[in-house]
Amino acid sequence: MLKKRKGPLVLFYIFLLLLSFRVTAQGSQYYINELFDANPPPQVLKEGPVVRIIQPGVEKPMANEEQFEPGSDLGLELELELELELEAEQPEPSQQPQPKSLGKVALTFDDGPDGRYTGRILDILKTEDVPATFFVVGEAVERYPETLKRIFNEGHLIANHSRTHADFALLDNEDILTTELIPTSRAVEKITGYFPLIMRPPYGSLRQDSVQFVRESGWKIVRWSLDTFDWDSTQNSPEQILNRIQTLHHRGAIILMHCNGPATTRVLPDLIKMLRDLGYEFVRVNEL
Ligand SMILES: [Zn+2]
Fold it and tell me: Which of 14, 64, 76 is nearest to 220 (CA)?
């Protein structure tokens, strides 16, 4: 009996040891595909077939490596929980006045890559040292492989935004998977070696039965919590976008922007500055 009880305990200690190693290890930590294991139940608002999903907090350490390897990190969630608990138990002594921190936000860019604006967005992100997440479209990936490669090499997270930008509410579940999601991630994998398993449906449109299906097929669904409306020419002046951010910013915000228009590149430097001045740190969506 005793032996039977000790087995799992020993395994647990070994697991903790492995985790403590992981905390100190650098590299190959960004492109995790296990996030779906921690999927929250979708928060369905009253939007007909459209489902809005707010991503829960998933803390993750920043790293400074320039090369990213595809890979997987089992147990990351637990590792991070442990880290957070540690931080909570041992607050840092206040050495210097700390700037006000409002937490983390994630900039996300949909519909790329393209041949014009994505490069400019990458330039700005590089200058400002801001990591971001790009929800790419498979057809665009095939058209602009070099830009896709640059997104990857500059440390941004690549996620899946369909192959043709179809409205998933109009597709059956098998088609969503086999004609839209998988070909796109395969195209990304062919160029980067990384197969994204994080997806955002075009227009945020996904039937409830598809939410279940997509999740059970191993995907993490990420929508957004703050729309900049950079895609809408009637309300996307820099002033309008900045006013929107000023009003709607919140801890853990997933901020929706796009790769295929001038409004985004015009406002991006000021938008980054505003959020920084408010006290936010920029992370990839898997680090929220
Ligand atoms: Zn889109």
Answer: 76
Measure 203 CA to ligand 1 centroid, in angstroms.
6
Find the 281 Cα to ligand 1 centroid distance in Å: 25
Number of domains comprising the chain: 1
What are the tens digits of pLDDT across the range 111-134? 999 999 999 999 999 999 999 999
Structure tokens at 59: 């803390």
Task: Write down the catalytic residue from 37, 73, 110, 167.
Answer: 110
Domain membership flag for residue 28: no
3-state secondary structure of 110: strand
Q: How far is the CA of 228 from the centre of ligand 1 (A)?
A: 13
Specify the pTM.
0.69
Is 156 inside any structural domain? yes
- Distance from Cα 30 to the centre of ligand 1, integer Å: 23
In a domain? residue 14:
no
Q: Which of 111, 156, 161, 258 is catalytic?
A: 258
CATH number at residue 279: 3.20.20.370
264 domain-assigned: yes
pLDDT tens readout for residues 19-55: 444 333 332 222 233 333 333 333 333 233 333 333 3
Answer yes or no: 110 catalytic. Answer: yes
Bond before 113 cis per omega within 30 degrees: yes
Sole residue written with tokens 């210097």? 96
Angle between helices 117-128 and 262-278 (to 10 degrees): 20
Distance 139 CA to ligand 1 centre (A): 12
